[in-house]
Amino acid sequence: MAFSTPSTKSLVAFVTTARLGSMTAAADAERTTQPTISQRIRGLEEHLGLPLFDRLGGRLSLTPQGERFYQEVAPSLDAICDACDRLMHDGQGLSPPVVIAADAGFTHLWLLPRLPALKRAFPQYNIRLISVDREDDPERLAADLAIRFGLSSPQEEEQLLAREAVFPVCSIEYARRHNLSGVLTSNQISRLSLLHQDIKNPRWLDWMQWSQFAGVAPGMADDTFTYQNYALLLNAALDHRGVALGWENLVEEYLVTGRLVALGPKVTRENYGYWLHARQPRRAKIEPIRCWLLNAVEQGENKNHAKESVMGQY
User: Fold this and answer.
1) From CA 70, how far away is CA 49, in angstroms rounded?
2) Which helix (H) or strand (E) holds 145?
3) Each residue of 264-303: pLDDT tens digit?
4) pLDDT at position 176, please?
5) CATH classification number, 8-91, choose in 1.10.10.10, 3.40.50.620, 3.40.50.300, 3.40.120.10
6) Do the Cβ atoms of 195 and 241 come closer than 8 Å?
7) Counting Cβ atoms within 10 Å, is residue 123 exposed (0-12), middle (13-18) or buried (19+)?
8) Cβ(26)–Cβ(155) under 8 Å?
9) What pTM was computed for the model?
10) 56 exposed, middle or buried (CB, 10 Å; 0-12, 13-18, 19+)?
11) Which CATH superfamily, name and number, covers 166-268?
């Protein structure tokens, strides 16, 4: 009896669910519904005559047969997707798109300044940046490369792009005016104007949390004013209004150009940082771009370390 090949849609549903660990996440990534993904996987399992996922206990995990099937099918499906993508765009005379998603701060403060260099390095692609703050945003899930900030996630195939490093920053003029250099003391912090952001996401440190990790007394004023986003907060620091918390990669350009100076202590949290995820169906095509981003972060960190070696010499 001849064996019929499963539908491509059912294979895509299976591979995407296996990678993301959730049918809901797979539905968002494939721009469809969770019942549709579930139905396609059920159809594939019936076609093959065996279960691919263990659904007991409310958790979704691959069976041994499902894991083996995934390892064998996923690379071939990736190659097919890449071939179709190249042929489609070659036929239309268009540059293949590459979408990079990240939160607003990283997009505007790190990615945008490097976009011209990135486009020069990969002129054959139409590189597009999107700003998404929610980790479950469908646009983030569908992006070719997604950068998120937070704790490492064992559920995602991610690579550490940059470790978290947070320290006070201010303008050179503000530092001179208040005789600031090197590591701040609790006494100094209590006399400074601390710039606060209206943060409702526990992933990000505020001054109170930073002070606890830094081992200094927090300087909390009764008339605290909070800025709605990080860009406004940095503008206030550039305008000599006070001291802000600086995430190393987000303030990198300001430190290199001398518009802001870094103070101490520097706070790091284990397993916190920026994580880079590459969407597997296009992994081969975007691998050079992924490597470019990793190298750009490393170069920026080297510049920051060189700048910190002369910190306090205004």
Assistant:
1) 16
2) strand 145-151
3) 999 999 889 999 988 765 666 788 899 999 999 988 766 6
4) 94
5) 1.10.10.10
6) yes
7) exposed
8) no
9) 0.68
10) exposed
11) Periplasmic binding protein-like II (3.40.190.10)
